[in-house]
Amino acid sequence: MRSRKAATMAGVAAAVLAVAAGIYFYFFNNYFFSNFSISISPEGRANASATESSGPGARRPDAPGPGDEPTATASIELAETQLAFVKVEPVGERAFPVEKESVGSIDFDEDMTLQVFTPYQGRIIGLFAQVGDDVKKGQTLFTVDSPDLLQAESTLIAAAGVLDLTTRNLARLRELAATRAVSQKDLDQGISDQQTAEGALRAGRDSVRLFGKSEKDIDRIIAERRADPTLVVPSPINGRITARNAAPGLFVQPGGAPAPFSVADISTMWMLANVAESDSPALRRGQEVRVRVMALPDRIFEGKISTIGANVDPNTRRVLVRSEIADPQHQLRPGMFANFVIRTGDPLIGPAIPLDGVVREGDGTMSVWVTTDRRRFFKRTVRLGLTHDGYHQIVDGLKVGELAATTGALFLSNALLTASR
Prior knowledge:
Number of helices: 5
CATH superfamily of the largest domain: RNA polymerase II/Efflux pump adaptor protein, barrel-sandwich hybrid domain
Helix content: 25-40%
Strand order of the largest sheet: 4-13-16-15-14-17
CATH architecture of the largest domain: Beta Barrel
Mean pLDDT: 79
């Protein structure tokens, strides 16, 4: 019993709501659409349903000009209460950039990505950077216990000792030569030995310097007579560590793959995009590129095309385009999905109307609503061009300075359809 009563009550409620909705829509339509004045001519010309001027060739004073009249298909006049739904503005002129759009991904600039090898063989004894760290030029990445460095420093220490010996010996020979206690031949030999020792020391210093030791380090090695076999491998550029294959105790050699570290300069990044084959003829090296990434939707990155692929991918029918993107704040990361826009020509300047001022008809044509008195509106078919920043470019059918409905064009089309029915 209760379920039957509940079902009966639900049926009554649904009937009441249906009646209320019908009454509401009846009065809504009656209020908004009963006061329209509509005129449609069989020839597709806008005619008036109000008073027309007499005489041959006469036309309505509020209709569009003679050049526009044949393109108007219908007109509709709004009541005072309906004008609030329509915004009328003069048609302005705007610049529409000629651009191509595509998608791609961010990658490191491979021209500024370096693999850091040890200059001499040895075992790694210390690591000072991790993947993702930002490093400066000259900052230590890792150290190596190098037997080659040890040998060079030992040679340096020996050369310094020989120079000290030959210098003291030459001083004694000069004292003895003053009293003619030694022959000139012995003095000359002493001078030659001292000069040879000086050359050997300079060569030893240069050898140790090739391992990255500074003059201060070399002087300390000579003064302390103690070799330091620790070879320091610094970063060659400012950048970010992109790979690390080093570990303590690992034996490394010059050029041995994989490199212990890879460093990339991230002030400039690459964007690799696949551009449609049909758009590729418009692309040129050096064209400006604006890039957006999904991770930073409010940020626009500027760059230029650096390389255009020589081949078309036979599977995707697309061309690889590489752009160099400036990233001074280091916000871009490899693998980010990106959208980019390429300016391929000079901007086109012409009449423009907001997107809300254009209506797509059932047959695919585009129409706008024009007026002269801001009350009666004439429907006119137009041809669109480019779209930019919420505006359509009008290629044909509308002139700069004409009054057109920039908001509420769909309302007028619906009102015309309702009134005509």
